Amino acid sequence: MPDSSAQRAADSTAVRTPQATAEHLIGGSIGTRVGLGRPSPRVLIWPRWFDNPYLPSLVDAFREEGLDVRTPFILSSGSARLRAGDWLHGHWTTEAHRDRRLWLYKTRAGMFRRQIQELKQRGVRIAWTAHNLVPHDDPYPELGRRARQELLDLCDHVFIHFPGARAILAEEFGYDGPTTVVHHPHYIDSHPIPPTQSGARAELRLPTDGFVALSFGLIRPYKGLADIIAGFQRMARENDRLILAGHPEGDVAAELAAARRDPRIIVQAKHIPTAQVPTYFAAADAAVIAHRTFFTSGSALLALSMGCPVVGPAVNHLADLAGGQRLYPVELCPDGLAAGMAEARAKAATVDRDSLRYWAAEYGSWADAARRSAAVFRSN
C-alpha cells in the first residue's frame, strides 16, 4: 500500500454516519442487517492511520456492509467495550510502536502484547491484515520480528492480499491458521480521473517526447532510491526524466543530493496533494518500485489505478499483479532496473492506460474486501 507516516488523533469511538444515527434513534443496531436475525460483532480497527486512503476507504466499506466498526486512536480505551465474539482487526500494529529509543520501543511492544493477551482472555477474536511481513526501516528488526511472531501466535485469522502469502507466513513465522485472500482494492475512486499524458507533462513542465519514470510516495531508506537513480542514469537519454515525488522520511539525504546533481532528475520532496496525484502518474511512462523488502504493494495498485505500468521485481504481491502490460519484471539492482525502464520506454506507445485502470477495478474493490472480511467476522 502507499505508506502512512503518522496517526491522527481521534475519539475512541467511531463517528456515526447519518444512517447509523437514525438506526440508533429507532432502537436498531449499527451492525444489524436485514435478514441476519442477530447483530454483527463489533470490529475495532487499529491503529488509526488515516493519512492515506486505505483505512478510511475500508472503514466506509465495512459500514456499508453493515458492520459496527470502531477506529480508536488509543487501543486500551477503544477496546474496553469489546465483548466475547467481537474482533480486533489489526493492520500496521508493530509499526505503530516502532521508535528509535529502545526503551520506548520495548515498552510499547510489551503494552501491545499484554493488551492482546487480555482481549483473548475476554473472548475477543484477533485478526490481522498482512500488509508487511516485517516493519520497514525498523531500528530494531529483531524486536519487530519478535513482535510480529507474538501477534501471529495469538491471531484467530489473517487476511492476505495474494495467495502466495500463506506459504511465506508459514515458512517465516510458522503460522498455519485460517487465512482469507482479500485482493488489495483499487484507488480509482480516491482520486480525480487522470489527465492526458500531454496535458500532464505540460503542467509539470516535462519534455513531450522523452521517457518519464516515476518513484512516488514517501521517500524512505527501504525504497531503494539509490538503485533507482543509478538504473535511470544508465539508460536515460537527454530528454528522459525521473521524478522523485513524496515527503522524505528517514536518512535519505545522500540519495536526494545525488538526484539533485542530475538535471534529468526532478525532486519533489514534499507531500503531493490528492488532486495532483493523477497528474504525476499520467505524465509517467512507468512507476518504478525497488523496495528492498515488501510484501504487499499498495504503491503498485495506486499506479495501476492511475493507468500507469510498473517496473519492479516479480515477487510477492507484484507477482500476483503481473501480466499484460501491468509489470515490467526486473532484478533488484541498477542494471536490472535500467533494463526494466528501457523496456518500458520501448513499449510506452503501446500501453492502453484505460485497460490498466479497468483491470485494477476488476482486481479488487472496497465492497468486495468488505464482503470477504465481514464473512469472517460474522462466522461462528
Automatic annotation (TrEMBL):
Pfam families: Glyco_trans_1_4. SUPFAM superfamilies: UDP-Glycosyltransferase/glycogen phosphorylase. It comes from the Bacteria. This is Glycosyl transferase. It comes from Mycolicibacterium bacteremicum.
